[in-house]
Design a protein that fits this description.
Its EC number is 3.1.3.7. By secondary structure, the protein is of the alpha+beta class. It is built from twelve helices and 14 strands.
Length: about 400
């Protein structure tokens, strides 16, 4: 049975306790919570942690939506257009860090996240820090969190700086991109709050909150009145679920496209030409026999869209010298894999998230269904060889 449906009883109990009660994450303490909540109920592995991740990502997504609305309506005073984005990045990271530590305890908590609080400390960062602190407190109040103390600016700094962990192959580490796709966020387009859990070097769960992604497929994007706001969640061995961010949509299991003829396949890639070598991806598509034009979307929303079959192929080939980070792919990778897809680098290696904050890959990252993967890999290698011959 899928994780979201199977956890409905726990969800009810946990929802009653909310962020006001502390639900522990270590297995012994978790059992004590379960004994208290429901003596006969057994939790599948990581089910409880997935529930916490979904709640935390949803909370952060609401903060991002608030900031994005102000940004687009130009209600926010802007020294530079980047400023409100930074507020949302920090706010999202602080909220998720705070929410997870509140539930899991802070003693053994480890998080590898994109942002740190260096720029917020000191005089120049004070105004921004105060705005972030307000946003975070407003989000906690709006969520109706019981017994939540008001966070001070020092609490916010600490929460953000909890993301400095180096990760690695031992123990558990949360992996967070508080806003993935900053450029899409500024444009009013796609972005994602991406949260995953690493256990002994393996990604065991992932959540992608995509506030602007249409519920009915990415091609519905331009039509007005189409409901938006998707939340993808995946747990090792339990599949990938899609639910709406506002809970108006019954959670359902999703699968990658099963198309096996490249002529009927489409591919997705970065919206930003500066993030991906679009001449290379065009060449790969041509060699492979893909006829449809690329679907260009910002952020890991691409992985979510692909997990439900909006596109059959994912390509990301950054410009030479760019080094990938684990928070840009951990959640998206398990969302695809649990939906039946395969993710690897251009040499066919699985992605290794156990090496620290960086993700070292050969040339780029690719994903598709198992039927298309051999042709896809061969096409990528042919395109890279052709490129080498030319240069
Ligand atoms: N020069 C770059 N090349 C590739 N990716 C980049 C570059 N600069 C930032 N990114 C990151 O690429 C991701 C966006 O992916 P996409 O290009 O598929 O939309 C984000 O994680 C973004 O960081 P950030 O999290 O700060 O937005
Ligand atoms: Mg990112
Ligand atoms: Mg980011
Ligand atoms: Mg960034």
């Amino acid at each position: 049975m899928d994780s979201i449906v199977a956890s409905s009883r726990l969800t009810r109990v946990a929802a009653q306790i909310g962020f006001g009660g502390r639900i522990f994450c270590s297995s012994s303490l978790r059992n004590s919570f379960l004994t208290y909540a429901e003596p006969t109920m057994a939790l599948s592995t990581y089910e409880h942690e997935l529930h916490l991740a979904v709640r935390a990502a949803r909370l952060a997504a609401r903060l991002c939506q608030t900031v994005q609305k102000k940004l687009l309506a130009k209600e926010t005073q802007s020294k530079a257009d980047q400023s409100p984005v930074t507020v949302a990045d920090y706010g999202s990271q602080a909220l998720i860090s705070w929410a997870l530590q509140r539930e899991c305890g802070s003693e053994t908590f480890s998080m590898v996240a994109e942002e740190d609080a260096d720029d917020l400390r000191g005089k120049d960062g004070l105004e921004m820090l105060l705005r972030i602190t307000d946003l975070v407190n407003e989000a906690i109040i709006a969520e109706g969190v019981q017994n939540a103390p008001k966070l001070s600016k020092e609490n916010v700094l600490e929460a953000v700086d909890k993301g400095r962990s180096q990760g690695g192959p031992v123990g558990r580490h949360w992996v967070l991109d508080p806003i993935d796709g900053t450029k899409g966020f500024v444009r009013g387009d796609q972005y994602a709050v991406a949260l995953a859990l690493l256990d002994e070097g393996d990604v065991v769960l992932g959540v992608l909150a995509c506030p602007n992604l249409p519920l009915k497929g990415v091609s519905a994007q331009s039509s007005s009145g189409i409901p938006v706001g998707c939340l993808f969640s995946a747990r090792k061995g339990a599949g990938t679920m899609l639910q709406s961010l506002d809970d108006s949509f019954v959670p359902q299991k999703v699968h990658v496209s099963d198309v096996d003829d490249p002529a009927h396949a489409n591919f997705c890639e970065s919206f930003e030409a500066a993030h991906s070598r679009q001449s290379l991806t065009e060449r790969i598509a041509k060699i492979m026999g893909v006829k449809a034009p690329p679907v260009r979307i910002d952020s890991q929303a691409k992985y979510g869209a692909m997990a439900r079959g909006d596109a059959a192929i994912y390509m990301r080939f950054p410009h030479v010298g760019y080094r990938e980070k684990i928070w840009d792919h951990a959640a998206g990778c398990i969302v695809i894999q649990e939906a039946g897809g395969v993710v690897c680098d251009a040499a066919g290696n699985r992605l290794d998230f156990s090496k620290g904050r960086y993700l070292d890959v050969e040339h780029g990252i690719m994903a598709t269904n198992p039927k298309l993967m051999p042709t896809f890999l061969a096409s990528v290698q042919a395109a890279l060889e052709a490129e080498n011959r030319v240069s």
